[in-house]
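Customer ticket, subject: "Can you confirm the structure for 2-isopropylmalate synthase?"

Message body: Hello, I'm evaluating your service for our small team and ran a test protein. I'd like someone to confirm that this is what the system normally returns, since I don't have a reference to compare against.
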Amino acid sequence: MVCTATFGPSQQHLQPEKPLHVRSHLAGSLRNRVQCVAIARTHSGKQDCRKRQKACVLCAASNGAEPAASVAATNGAVASLPQAQRPRPQYIPNRIDDPNYVRIFDTTLRDGEQSPGATLTSAEKLEIAKQLAKLRVDIIEAGFPVASPDDFDAVRRIAMDVGNARDPDGYVPVICGLSRTKLRDVEVAWDAVRLAERPRVHTFLATSPIHMEYKLRMTEDQVLENAVAAVKHLRKLGCQDIEFSPEDASRSEPRFLCRVLSEVIKAGATTVNIPDTTGWALPHEFGDLIAGLRKNTEGAENVIFSAHCQNDLGMATANTLAAAEAGARQLECTINGIGERAGNTSLEEVVMAIALRGDGLMNGLWTGVQPVHIAHTSRMVQDYTGMAIQPHKAIVGANAFAHESGIHQDGMLKSRQTYEIMVPETIGLTRADEAGIVLGKHSGRHALKTRLVQLGYALKEDQVSDVFKRFKDVADKKKLISDEDLLALVTDEVHQAQVIYELIDLQVMCGSLGMPTASVKMQGPDGVVRTASGMGTGPVDASYKAIDTLVNIPVELVDYSVQSVTEGIEALAVTRISLRPIGKLASEGFTVNAQGRTSQRTFSGSGADEDIVVASARAYVSGLNKLVAFMKTPKVSAAEKELQRMQASKPLTEQAASPVAV
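Agent reply: Thanks for trying us out. I re-ran your input and got the following:
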């Protein structure tokens, strides 16, 4: 017989006649989603497990090894069947056949990029989108296409590439573009995503009294008319998957919300998203709002209800989970919780909360996300956006699985379950090498590549070669190379913008006597190696002035930070900077966000080296490369020209007759 355990107020395990080891876990890689349930008898060795050809957590423990991964525990007992083992329901825009399945809508590339300084290039957006597909999110909101030609191209590239990369099991993410209810917005958004296998357009309009009076200067009837017109126009264009959001819903009148939602559902919306735009709501009232709208909105049974929460009061994750319990079956999140102001709901927090507590306390809720890719995705977003993760950030922070208290350490040595509700391997972190490999100056390329794979980085051969070259340089100066060092080198060699200018050599002279000076040798886009010198208030400033002489693009340094990767005098330094163009180029890189505000792009860069000044110079060159790559992009792309031609060919009467607000 198979033994099971129940978790009630007493949290007691059911005990059969003999003592049992009962553990439901993920054996091997979480990607394979294999479950092994111990047979209800005293575990007497590896024979039973070999018969099933599956690795058993008990056998691993008997050898002193930790299981490859496990799912969360309640009072020491690992949770029941892994949720992601269930087949994902067939995607139908306006319904989910499994009432407990929750769609995860990632808006890192759209709302997350609205974080100050979080500018991403088109190539970086594509790489993040590919990683989100590995994570198996249901919907990727790829951007706000009308913001700029570069944004349009980025969304279209993602739609054509990631949006058509169907896995053997049938998974392919929905690719979504955001638009206001303006006629041109919805047309541009649809044209950007329409080549995806599953395209969606997400259109929005504010419904709160304060927004209607001061921002829109529109009446309730005008707002309703514009919302319905946008949805109908999308249907006319051929879009069958339409999401509508009443912006600032948590401060809107429930009566008017129900009226707007009912009408957009009649017009053809398939998902209605309820945003807590200013982070105003508390969990109980936001849950009540979702429940009330589902109960009182005509046609609510024909659409998916969604939740989008900001984190201004630190309630985003709590509000999102409250919405899920109240019936929302799409949850909108960003990686690392990045976003405007205090950020958005953190995807990793919501996904792991549902994974650990969904069965027991949330009436069986589950998602299709593969959490083993969370750590790598988090690191990629941090590197590309230049937005560092706070050490005590839940799930992905550096301290999330660290234990310094003596009492905690004692408990962890006796059982990891005393102070950990999940193991780091669950999200793709592996901090111990079972083969006993220690990386140092004598380590070879194969050992490095093996460790990178264990850390979740399946790099191309040329990328491995680049990292290995830097690895050998650092290993010559440092006895042992830690995982943190490797991750810093991956960031510096792989997660970088297109190399246009390359730093070859740097020499500085500084001290208490004389003016700090720096000499740099760089290779430019023409392949020619040039040298220049500069003087400044310090060695970093002098280095930057020398680099400016060679690149010859006037920029302003907006932010600069440096931190050590590990402890000790030999530690690698990681520098992060952000900059923006000034002077004649100050007008470059302006973009329009979803709220209609125009802002200038900033460009981030990062660099790692055992020398702080060299790390700073590498970061500066990285930021300049990102800026130059953006400026080299044609201001009017081929796709934008097509849109202009399409709009120019419309009858003037059709353009003028649209009831959508301008």
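A couple of notes from the result: Confidence is low (pLDDT under 50) at residues 1-84, 636-647, 649-662. The first strand starts at residue 24 and ends at 27. Feel free to reply with more questions.
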